[in-house]
Specification:
This protein has about 240 residues and is mainly β. The chain has no helices and 19 strands. The strands form 4 sheets. An 8-stranded antiparallel beta sheet has the order 7-8-9-10-19-16-15-12, with no helix packed on it. Strands 6-11-18-17-14-13 form a 6-stranded antiparallel beta sheet, with no helix packed on it. Strands 1-2-3 form a 3-stranded antiparallel beta sheet, with no helix packed on it. The protein is globular and about 55 Å long.
Length: about 240
């Protein structure tokens, strides 16, 4: 028996799956108007083999946080035990799950929300200690494409390319998958977006193609002062109803 999954579904049938305790979003299926079943998977997640069902899946949407204040300190919530702090809904047909995690003097809240035409992930870090904390943070999403040819991204300006990786500015709009959508970042102090592809090595990860992207503060760490907090969010929005 594998780790528990939380599935959120709103009134129009759009859904997402959240894996516990690592907080990985393994599926997001918004409603579309051209398929018989009415829904299209947006995320790419590597399947877990039956022989290793206890392993963590790769892909989807994941939150990466590292404490770089001290070389001996490392914080990575994806490998920790998130706990469910709250589950909520509102009158405009939205659902959200709030996860929490404490590491030393840091209280971290991770909120995953689902709306009829979008989903969002948000992180809040509070420093309850007496010293500033430096963090590198990224929300990485793996978007599924049918094939390598025809995949396109609009927006962003190239900066500091390395191999198949770019750092980009501005919101990104994706084409070449079954539906077009855009990724919007909110609250990041340093306006960089991580973008990478498997390139010619894509067959190593399965038959379909994917692009990994997300807002990040990796080159210049975020500094959270004592008694203060830092928050950021990512929204995936589509208009294919």
């Amino acid at each position: 028996m594998g780790p528990p999954l939380v599935e959120l579904t709103v009134r129009n049938g759009s859904s997402l799956r959240l894996r516990l305790p690592n907080g990985l979003v393994t599926s997001y299926k918004p409603k579309v108007n051209w398929k018989d079943d009415g829904f299209e998977e947006v995320l790419y997640t590597l399947p877990i083999s039956v022989s290793n069902s206890s392993a963590n899946p790769k892909g989807g949407i994941g939150l990466v946080i590292n404490d770089v204040s001290d070389p001996a300190s490392k914080l990575s919530p994806l490998s920790t035990q998130w706990t469910v702090k709250d589950v909520d809904s509102d009158a405009i047909d939205a659902l959200q799950v709030e996860l929490s995690y404490t590491s030393g003097n840091l209280d971290i809240t991770y909120v995953v929300s689902l709306h009829p035409e979008s989903m969002a992930t948000a992180v809040l870090v509070n420093n309850n200690g007496h010293k500033p904390v430096s963090l590198t943070i990224a929300m990485l999403s793996h978007f599924k494409f049918k094939r390598r040819g025809g995949a396109a991204i609009e927006g962003g300006s190239k900066a500091a390319p390395t191999a198949h990786t770019l750092l980009c500015l501005h919101p990104l709009r994706f084409y070449g998958c079954e539906l077009s959508f855009r990724v919007i970042r909110i609250g990041y102090d340093y306006e960089d977006i991580y973008l990478s592809t498997p390139g010619s090595l894509s067959e190593k990860y399965g038959k379909e193609y994917f692009i990994c992207t997300g807002p990040a503060s990796m080159l210049v760490p975020v500094v959270v002062n004592p008694g203060e907090g830092w928050t950021a969010a990512q929204v995936i929005e589509h208009d294919n109803l």
